[in-house]
Design brief:
Length: 733
């Protein structure tokens, strides 16, 4: 009887497989063996693509004569540092007594590529090969994956996409880096006064660099615009001590409607015009309309890797690669499901067994009560009918959720790792709770034919918000990206947004009277959006969006008084004031928001048809985005502030941007990068062939390389360097 060979990606994973299979193994050099089974591992990549000089020594020297470099057949080689383990794995693959190979590398494109390269270099023939596809490291999931393992050939299309991605990065990196270095390297070197300069570019990283540089230049070019808002203070009839504040807005019927004097519709460009309005306001204040409604706020969708990286950047000021390291650790400790996922929903199959995950969390002290309540009330039973379960939105893996297992590992976690786990658990449990309910009142007040608007809201049912109170928060209401109004539920009936302690939200401005500029009111428009924008549920509009005023903090007692107001009710005019503000530039990216922007790069695309075609395709993958950002920082194209996680370009980064912009501009366009990513997805899904994709890739690389060779634009490049350098004068001295 032949033996089964299991190949994992790491020694720790191999041990979990041995434990799940309850094998009595003996440890060997690089593998474990029992009477019927062998378990080994790859320690990541064992094989890599060969450098051009391996094809021919002439390619070692960078020259216009040897590019574009487009090999007909690609060469691969064993990585020297892991050659010993490769030899062990290769020998095991070809052992005569091994009849069946179980591929247990990570369940994704990269894991598939890792194994396929090893098999290719080992020349494996005549073996039955099965693919184990799992979503967590729990014993049940491992055993299910082995039992349901499919023939490896069913993943050939995924393998094709993995090979193509590597070839794409290889061809673009080698050809474009060489041609741009040969063409502009001397100019970069001389300007920076360095001994040498290599211009490193890539399909994804250059696009990310472009996003950051463009944002920085938008900020530099931004011109602040002052504006002046008119606020009115009104006393409630019968209770002169109670006041409400309303904001003037030039609606239809106003003497200033569509006036060129306006800044938007709720402010003036000149203070004198604001004062002129106040001078014209006389007479009593009357309620024109009083609208009452309840607003439901649903729990946000579950975490994918990008969302988790974004929240961890905000909450803990850690980089995306650190977040990935932590969640990978939690995965290997059986505590959470597979981390490298783009999905934010569960599968139907998982939903049917979800009570097991919840049940296990009864042993997690911080959230044990919530888990018990969910099970007691049976709220998990209908989860498959909600927006949190959708098979169509899942490619390789469903969202990151706690397994309910591995809690014995909690004491050994670092404080940050424990907090990341808590964030994942609370997000998961919140979807089994009802929506938070707010009571809202919107008022329109008329004075001398002019309209003032005021909005109020108070939390009436906490719903899922009770689950999102982090143990580590300075305030119980701190819930970053939980899809909640941050001051809601503070026990005082206050409702605010994004940490605004004045209870103000969006719309008319923050406590400084600032609003966003350049179409980016609060750092929006970067392709990512906030949790509130993208996950709003039933009517999560920014306050003031529907009535032009700021929603004010309000307690239940005051809300009761407001309920007595109706059309025709009179108010006492207490006075008017002019509030000065100024527009603010777009916000810089931080390590979290840039990851979200990469994930949602398709939103940058202006062409509606193209945007629809690549919907759901970002730039990079959940597995690679953090590493790409890390590389850009390491090669000093970008600077990352470790305390704030804010990202800015370096002078070198801006110069590389200028070089690419004047030579291979499409590399800076998210549309191009996203369309390549979409193409890989089509290959993985079997909708186009690898040859079709490769043909387009070869053509693009060849054409663009030859175009750069023919360029004569050194003067323009130097001018761009000087323009960028002016902002780094101290750095150059």
């Amino acid at each position: 009887m032949g033996k089964n060979l299991f190949i994992a990606e790491k020694p720790s994973v191999a041990k979990e497989f041995a434990k799940a299979l309850k094998l009595n193994t003996s440890s060997r050099d690089g593998f474990l063996e029992s009477r019927n089974c062998i378990i080994t591992w790859c320690v990541g990549h064992l094989v890599t693509m060969s450098y051009p000089e391996i094809y021919d020594e002439k390619f070692r020297r960078w020259s216009f004569d040897t590019i574009p470099f487009i090999p007909r057949e690609f060469k691969y080689e064993v990585i020297d540092s892991v050659r010993k383990q490769f030899t062990i794995v290769s020998d095991l693959l070809n052992r005569p007594d091994v009849t069946t190979i179980y591929v247990c590398t990570d369940s994704g494109r990269e894991g598939e590529y890792i194994y396929r390269l090893v098999e290719q270099m080992s020349g494996v023939k005549g073996k039955e090969r099965k693919r184990v596809w799992i979503d967590s490291q729990t014993e049940e999931e491992i055993l299910r994956g082995i039992k349901e393992a499919k023939d490896l050939s069913e993943y050939d299309a995924l393998s094709d996409a993995a090979y193509l991605r590597a070839k794409e990065d290889y061809l673009m990196g080698i050809n474009f880096s060489r041609v741009l270095t040969l063409k502009y390297g001397r100019a970069v070197k001389d300007y920076l006064k360095r001994d040498r300069a290599v211009i490193s570019v890539g399909r994804v990283m250059t696009c990310v660099l472009g996003m950051v540089v463009k944002r920085e230049r938008e900020i530099r070019a931004f011109v602040k615009t002052p504006f002046y808002r008119v606020l009115g203070s009104f006393g409630l009839e019968g209770d002169g001590d109670k006041r409400l504040e309303g904001e003037w807005k030039a609606v239809e019927g106003s003497r200033y409607y569509a006036s060129p004097k306006l800044y938007k519709e709720n402010g003036f460009k000149a203070k004198a015009d604001a004062q002129a309005l106040i001078d014209q306001l006389s007479g009593e204040a009357v309620i024109e309309s009083a609208a009452r409604k309840n607003e439901n706020k649903n729990p946000p969708l579950l975490y994918n890797l990008a969302e988790l990286q974004n929240d961890c950047s905000k909450l803990f000021k850690i980089s995306p690669d650190e977040t990935l390291r932590i969640v990978q650790e939690l995965y290997e400790k059986k505590m959470v499901t597979y981390p490298r996922t783009d999905a934010r929903v569960l599968s139907t199959a998982v939903a049917k067994e979800i009570q097991k995950n919840i049940g296990g969390l009864q042993g997690y002290g911080l959230c044990a009560g919530f888990a018990r309540d969910i099970l007691a009330q049976g709220s998990y039973k209908n989860i498959a009918k909600t927006r949190y379960v959708n098979d169509k939105q899942i490619t390789d893996h469903y969202a990151i959720i706690p397994t309910g297992q591995g809690l014995n590992n909690l004491p050994g976690l670092t404080p940050v790792s424990a907090k990341v786990y808590e964030v994942i658990v609370r997000r998961f449990l919140s979807i089994f709770y009802p929506a938070a309910v707010y009571q809202k009142i919107s008022l329109q007040i008329k004075v001398a034919g002019e309209s003032f608007f005021a909005g109020f809201k108070v939390l009436t049912r906490e719903g899922y918000l009770q689950v999102t109170q982090y143990s580590f928060s300075k305030k119980s209401s701190d819930s970053v990206s939980q899809g909640v109004d941050r001051t809601a539920g503070d026990g005082q009936g206050k409702v605010g947004g994004a940490g605004d302690e004045q209870g103000k939200v969006g719309g008319a401005g923050d406590e400084q009277g600032k609003v966003g500029g350049a179409g980016d009111e609060q750092g929006k428009g970067c392709g990512a959006g906030s949790e509130q924008e993208r996950d709003s549920g039933d009517g999560d509009k920014a306050v003031g969006e529907e009535n032009g005023g700021e929603e004010q903090k309000c307690d239940e007692q005051f809300m009761a008084l407001l309920k007595g107001l109706k059309k025709g009710s009179k108010l006492t005019v207490k006075g008017y004031e002019i509030k000065e503000g100024e527009t603010s530039p777009p916000k810089r990216y931080n390590s979290g928001s840039i990851i979200l922007t990469m994930e949602n790069a398709g939103q940058f695309i202006e062409d509606e048809e193209l945007r629809a075609q690549i919907k759901g395709s970002g730039i990079g993958t959940s597995a690679t985005r953090a590493e790409i950002l890390k590389k850009l920082v390491n090669i000093e194209y970008l600077a990352l502030n470790k305390k704030t996680q804010v990202i800015t370009p370096t002078l070198m980064g801006e110069m590389i941007y200028d070089v690419v912009n004047l030579s291979i501009r499409p590399l800076l366009d998210p549309a191009l990068t996203a369309s390549w990513e979409k193409g890989l997805t089509l290959v993985a899904d079997g909708n186009i062939t690898a040859n079709e994709y490769m043909g387009k890739l070869d053509d693009f690389v060849t054409r663009r390389t030859n175009m750069v060779k023919q360029l004569s634009n050194q003067g323009n490049v130097q001018a761009c360097f000087r323009a960028s350098g002016a902002f780094y004068a101290r750095e150059q001295q």
